[in-house]
Amino acid sequence: MHFLRRPARFSSSAALLAAALCLMAPSMADDALIDLPPPIEEGEGMPGVGDIPEAPPPVAPPAPPAAARDTAPADAFMYVSVTAQRYRFPQPWERMPPQRRRGMGVLIGEGKILATAELVADATFIELERATTGQRLTARVVFRDYECNLAVLEPVAPADGFFDGMKIMEIDTAGNLGDVIEVWQFEDDGTPLVSEGWLSRALIGSYFIPDRRLLRYEFKGSLQNRGGSFILPAVRDGRLTGIVLGYNASDQIADILPAPIIRRFLDDLAEGEYTGFPVLGITYARTTDDQFRRWLGLEPGEGGIYINRVRPQSAAAEGGLLDGDVLLAIDGFAIDRRGFYQDPDFGPLDFGHLISGRPEAGQTLEVDILRDGERMQLQLTPSRTPPGEFLVEPYMFDRGPRFLMTGGVLFKELTRPFLLSFRDWTTNAPIQLVEAERNQELYNEDRRKLVFLAYTLPTPATVGYERISSAIVERVNGRPIGDIRDLAEALDHPQDGLHTIELEGDLPVLHLDVDLVREVDRQLEAQGIQPMSRLE
Amino acid sequence: MSLQRFLPVAPVFAVLAATFFAGLPVFVGASSVDPPPVFSAVVEGVDGEENNLFRGVLRIENSTQIYDYRAPWNAGRFSSGTGTGFVIGENLILTNAHVVSNSRRLLLRMHGDPGVFPARILHIAHDCDLALLELEDPTPIADIPPFEFGDVPPLDSEVRAIGYPIGGERVTVTRGVVSRIDFSTYSHSGIDQHLVIQIDAAINPGNSGGPVLKGDKVIGVAFQGMRDADNTGYIIPTPVVRRFLDDVATGSYDHYVDLAIGEFNLINPAQRRALGLEDDGLGILVTRVAPGGSLDGQLEAGDVLLAIDDHPVFANGQVLLDGEMLIMHEVVERKFDGDTVDLSFLRDGSVQTATATLSPFTPARLFQAEYETRPRYAVFAGLVFQPLSRNLIASYSFDSIEIRKLLNDYIADALYLEQEDFVILAQVLPDEVNSDIAGMQGLLVESINGQPVTRFDDVIDLLIHPLQEGTLPEFVVIECRGANRPLVFESSRLPAAQERIRRQYGLERDAFAGPQEPGHW
């Protein structure tokens, strides 16, 4: 394994195609955008929709290399080597074979190391290594947020001199387009390898979770492959200006998770109760079509984006935003017909930054809208729902999906990673489960999770049930099933020696013989299906 | 035809996907160009009676016009193919529907005769892949004794197939045995299942429609093969052929009738115990009774079906018919529209009986391949609207979540009761009037100017006619499921745009609403 960076952007064929179209004729990139679903600001989107390159803003030419380089940053960096085991979503009792990953971490406080969350996802073992001296230390994750792709690590045991001579790195949030920045790597012997380039662009894009999009920098410059990783610190004037997430060698562009996001993550964490990066819960369409604009009542000179869906119970819904409203401005920043506003620091930027990145956490937004030809103002307070509180969890790391196997019938809680585990999942994942995920707010509030019968293994207890799969469970032994623990509880209450399983849709009621199930479970365990359930 | 493939559990789309893309049976008819003959005549030296037998097997040359669902305003593709037919009565020639589908001209040739005989279709049944032809001038076959039909032969019976497969011009005989008797999909319609016989005699493109004989009796009509297997030819057995002939004897083809129920086997002992059934291996659970189907109002979901026409229904859904275990739908396979069926079932612990009148289940035709039919379409502001059909989905390879959901729910939620057609915005012909939505395709049209769209003619009534009559409102607003916004057009721009698009894309007319349409637009 050399490139650690998951091919989220640069090697994705869709992104390459879009890039190629862009090279041929810029207008075609816009055409390519049209068939995609609306750009999505959170939750349920098409990965990378916002990543299709727009024309880059004009950028200052590179400044001459800094005359004298401060070598102090070398003392703030260390390798983070991780052994990770992902869970196998279709066979949830198993984990995948172990993977090794490596990236660079940054010392940001006494014994506190900043790394990307992606690097430590599903970690089973984390080791720190001083690039300059080769000293090693076992570490653990203190906190991580996969949506902003950041994690804080600390040593498992007292450091025993590991941090001696290390310096704590400051975070530099003052970066501007055109600034010269350095990306730090190390040779095998510990010699720093510093590559200079400049901050060429700021945009809104995803880091790790495909449909969570936040501020991102682009670094224009040449990097070498050292140590098999492009998760690297980026430094401006001796302070951390971001973390490189990946590098495209042919374009000589690196994606950077920028300091303002890091700063906010750390401040949020320091305050005690972590709130994260909030969203409104809307999807939208551009208003580039003049006929559509006139129908909406938009003036030729103004912008505005069309809100096609306000997710029920979301921040936008609670603030009174409705399907069909046109969003004109947020906090006085006018939004253009393609969804960009003029950021005072970065130039044109996707309006998502006005919701998730720019305001303070918990801050209320003043929103100008057009509704049925009338202009009005709303106050909206973006909020974040932790992933575990979704009926269908949008992502899942560091733990396996909850499931229960009994008698050869596999029950699971529906998660988005399960749907994504199908190749071409929109075509091949079971449609009733895809629909359930898309319309999860329609389910009764008594459901905390969506438990479904995934499939049946051929056992003496499941004879005749071979065709039943991917069916949402309504009741077991007469009890409504709100999550997998309800199911486990219900299975303790069979009637007349039978379990009764009621499924959504016009599927038959299934019955299992309790004695037979017990026998089958013993055999399945002996055959290596362990554990037989994961309820937590 | 039986509904059970797409009724309870298997999602409809799985069925479609398998038949559209997978290596299921392929046609053996319609080889377009025959290579020059390499072999000497294979029938020389046979005695007179055999020669007469071969004279009754004719080569069919079909010139076809196949409509293009992606450019429905075009005439389509002109092509040709060959197959086989055989004489079964006075100026009556039996062949496969797929041999004579999409026909513009039919010519028949006979073994040992230099003549070319124009023919026409009397009846064509796409759901069982059979067709009946007649010669325009019956004289050439007047003296040929018609073939007689036998019964379903036992396994391992020796059979021979006669036809005009690729590899030469002349009549060809191959031999083999009956390998399997089964109930399987007829790939011509892609959805219907009937009885089939599998034989190991070589059946190749061009054999389609030819007789397969045991002794001197026809026991089937060669019709399809399997791409990935050796020596597996499929023939349509005589019960299916006889049913077709009986059906058309009334003067028109009325299609198969259908129980239109979903069922689930009852072989799990725990399930039987819970339902209070004895361990006698009988009965099947009814999971759905399609509204509008034959048994609507007679059976209910949850009933246990015990017998059909006094044939006990086994727990795996099969019945014993003429000594063969076959799926229970075979009982009604041989019946006709208006015939009745007796049912015995268990409901609320007591055995009840009912007599139901059978009818075809027309909503399922959405899933059948269409032939001969000129596709309906309407072009408005460059937006191409077409009704949902199997051909449409296959032509465009639509597999969006919205289309999958629609196909999944169509039978399950009886959507056919609410809508006659599902109108799809199939594609957009780019023009300045629609440049912002030019990439949209495969969207389900829900409403036009606030009016729900439930049949294709709504598009004609709400868009095409008002456009031509100048009665459109100031803005035309089209809402589609799966679109990220309403599609809006300013009516003032539309007449010029329509004219431009018509010219640019070579549209002779804005719409075709079906064979019954009143005049041109």
Name a few traits of the molecule.
heterodimer; A: 536 residues; alpha+beta; N-terminal domain of MutM-like DNA repair proteins; Thrombin, subunit H; 4 domains; 8-stranded antiparallel sheet; 17% helix; B: 521 residues; 6-stranded antiparallel barrel; 9 helices; 30 strands; 16% helix; 35% strand; flat; disordered N terminus
N- and C-termini, Cα separation of chain A:
32 Å
User: Mean pLDDT of chain B, as a whole number?
Assistant: 87
User: What percent of the residues of chain A sit in helical stretches (DSSP H or I)?
Assistant: 10-25%
Low-pLDDT ranges of chain A: 1-68
- Backbone CA Rg of chain A: 26 Å
Architecture of the largest domain in chain A in CATH? Alpha-Beta Barrel
Mean pLDDT of chain A: 86
pLDDT below 50 for ≥5 consecutive residues: which ranges of chain B?
1-46
Tally of DSSP helical segments of chain B: 9
| Main sheet summary of chain A | 8 strands, antiparallel
Helix content range of chain B = 10-25%
The biggest sheet of chain B, with number of strands, parallel, antiparallel or mixed sense and barrel status, is:
8 strands, antiparallel
Helix segment tally of chain A: 12
